[in-house]
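tool_log.txt
---
The assistant was asked to compare two proteins side by side. It first ran the structure predictor on the initial sequence, then on the second. Raw inputs and outputs are pasted verbatim so the downstream comparison step can read them without reformatting.
(1)
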Amino acid sequence: MTRNLTFAASLLILLALWAALSALKNDPLLLPSPQTVARILWSEAASGKLTYHLTATIARVTAGFTLAIALGTALALILGRHPRLNAVAEPWVVVMMNLPALVVIVLCYLWIGLTEAAAVTAVTLTKTPMVVVTLREGVRALDPAMDEMARVFRLRPWTRLRHIVLPQLAPWFAACARNGLSVIWKIVLVIEFLGRSNGIGFQIHLYFQLFDIAHVLAYAVTFVVVMLAIDIALIQPWERHANRWRTKAMG
């Protein structure tokens, strides 16, 4: 309860600071007040435009996130268990980690076209190396005694993965999920800004061209609120559960 109250108080302070700066600037065109942005949000929601564009963005985030986690997990399990393969793949991972997301997005659009496939591919390619780096460390930190027990009881590969490996990687998955969402939604907005005809990023691009800061802030705030809700409702409970399991196992 105290944690929730602290979080709510922090948000109220942020809103109060925004309102104070808006009043001090006294220029609605450059820094509209929270009340102005809230009215625009209500209007966009009532017209159905907000739901339409928000749904498109969430779908891209979900698709890219799911593919990156799946592909990154498979690669991390292989590289973490096989040092020679890891030595071969390490330069690839480093290059992809340091390749700017904007370059990946532009190349995907040029090679694949201005399509949904290009958008999701760009998100997946950008996020997968981050998943690999994080989960690879988790694979290296797996308890050898648990592996030995699995061999003694002759567990099947799928059973070993499900009951031995994945539970130990739960805290690392939670870290990937939190960091992944914070990165992926920003990448998706850039993708929509550059080459899609719907989504939050597309709307921000539209109102950027019109120099309509109030609408830009309205759509930006919408997605920030959604990501905060996902973090509070899903990621944080998962993270606490994962760390609790790990603490009990070590005890």
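(2)
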Amino acid sequence: MTEGATLFRTQRFAMEGAGQSHTLDTEIACRKLLGTVPAKRFGDLHLWTHNSWNHFFSDHAVVTTIVPLSPTETLVRTRWLVHKDAVEGIDYDLDRLTEVWKATNQQDADLVARAQKGAESTGYLPGPFSPFTERLVELNTQWYLRRLSEVGA
């Protein structure tokens, strides 16, 4: 991965076995497929930037944006997109469509809350990011600091 102005990257993942979508049973959540996707087993196309994660499946897309509000608060907004002609209750069930990412977002929020509590404790000493598990965090931090200096902040 190269460092750029946006930290944009993309990947496409095949889903294991007969997996079709990000649902608990791995089957599609919406009967109407997106665009001209010809098959349910499209996989997961990811598009990432420093504050947005986008997942595209054959049946729906999940768009999450993250906006820092203060040193201790972040707005996380997730949107689920289905075919424009899909009808809730007929072509998809909203709870089934959203259950995986609602659970993922809650797990992330719980982890971040614990990390924030630790960072606010009197025993916290900042240190370097792990080159093994936090490489992207380091890249994002350096990108963010460069952007701040470019606008005089």
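---
observation on (2): The mean pLDDT is 89. The chain has one domain: 9-120+128-150.
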